[in-house]
Amino acid sequence: MPSKLSPPQPRVHVLGLGSIGTFTAHGLNEILPTPPAVTLLLHRETLYDEYIRRGSRTTLHTVSGQTTHHRAYDLEIYNPTTRAWHSPPPSNDPATSPIAHLIVTVKATQTVAALRPLQQRLTPSSTILFLQNGCGMIDEVNEHLFPDPATRPNYIVGVISHGVTLSTPFEVTHTGASAISLGKVPRPASQSPDPAKETASGEDYLLDALPTSPLLTATTYPTYAEILQIQLEKLAVNAFCNPVCALHNAQNKFLFTQPALRRAVLDEISAIVPRLPELWGVEGVAARFALDRLEDTVNGVLERTRETTCSMVVDLRCGRETEVRFINGYWVRRGGEVGVEVAVNEGLMAAVLERGRPASRGRTPGPPFLSAPQ
């Protein structure tokens, strides 16, 4: 009697190898009981040379001071001339096989452009985990890449609160152990898959497997309302911290000088969230996003990260596009949809966008409402 064939080993592709992408790839190798095959997507050819030079491995310096390495990676390399992915030398074969599980950790502003060369390899059976800062990236992906709900992949929202810094390519330091929160984005009702087929195709693999990695400390939430609230809490913190620090070229501790601005930003957010249709009828939303509670949440984060310099500060310093459209811009868009005045978030977004323009770089004063209260 023939023995049953074991199911094929799942394969996870990782797109974006900054601090979070490298940390996540490292954690994938610690999934229990058996890690998946992991393919690192190298967005430029020089990264391949760097990977070889660094011993063909990722390196993690843990919070306890230990150093660990993982080597079991496959690679694909992007060629900007052909706008296609290929295997490493010497074969350089085109990479065209379908992608079952994709983790995206690129900056929010780069999401559509980074996914476009992979578009033909993503099917309705594929699953994309968006493990990024900000909100609204999925809307842009749907608009530009997958407008037809019947042919778009499955989506997972991820919210990461680990502290991680990238020392050099493929080498990260875990500065603060925390958590990853995961939740599935529901498909339109008319496109909801058959649960039996969904299980058979492995679409829930990331939701089930990531929580088994001791490094990632991930939790999967059963409803979209739960993961959305976690995501919006982080977005509320970032809507105050990121633009204000960026405009003042300051560390997080500067924000303690801005209590009036903090309250004004959060007041708008507190009014928006209970009105969002995705959260209608969900118990406890108004209390969770009450203004005083949001202020306590923000202050708690600031106390733990006083000496931190947020990424938006660095982006403005370096002349790079910031993620403000996916932070304050998200609140501006949703406020408009539900009829809430969003002048403060709109002003912060406009100020950051203006400061990011080439002709504006080097200016230091912010708009009048950004000055410290008297």
Describe this structure in words.
It is a single chain. The chain has 374 residues and is an alpha/beta fold. It has helices at 19-28, 45-53, 111-115, 137-144, 195-201, 205-209, 224-248, 259-272, 285-288, 291-304, 311-317, 328-338, 343-356, and strands at 11-15, 37-42, 58-61, 67-70, 73-79, 84-86, 101-104, 127-131, 154-160, 163-168, 171-176, 180-185, 218-220. It has 2 domains: 11-189 and 202-222, Rossmann fold (3-Layer(aba) Sandwich); 228-356, N-(1-d-carboxylethyl)-l-norvaline Dehydrogenase, domain 2, CATH 1.10.1040. It contains 13 helices and 13 strands. The strands form 2 sheets. Strands 6-5-2-1-7-8-9-12-13 form a 9-stranded mixed sheet. The chain has a 4-stranded mixed sheet with strand order 4-3-11-10, covered by helices on one side. The longest helix has 25 residues, at 224-248. The N and C termini lie far apart (84 Å). The model is unreliable at 196-200 and 363-374 (pLDDT under 50).
Task: List the main descriptive attributes of the protein structure presented here.
374 residues; alpha/beta; Rossmann fold; N-(1-d-carboxylethyl)-l-norvaline Dehydrogenase, domain 2; four-stranded mixed β-sheet; 13 strands; 36% helix; 18% strand
Helices and strands, in N-to-C order? EHEHEEEEEHEHEEEEHHEHHHHHHH
Give the tally of structural domains: 2
CATH class of the largest domain: Alpha Beta
Beta-strand portion reads 15-25%
Poorly predicted spans: 196-200, 363-374
Coarse morphology? globular
CATH architect. name of the largest domain: 3-Layer(aba) Sandwich
Put simply, the count of helices is 13
Quote the average pLDDT: 92
CA-atom Rg in angstroms: 21 Å
Spatial order of strands in the largest sheet: 6-5-2-1-7-8-9-12-13
Percentage of residues assigned to helices: 25-40%
Structural class: alpha/beta
Pfam family, one: ApbA_C
Protein name: 2-dehydropantoate 2-reductase
Organism: Aspergillus uvarum CBS 121591
Keywords: NADP, Oxidoreductase
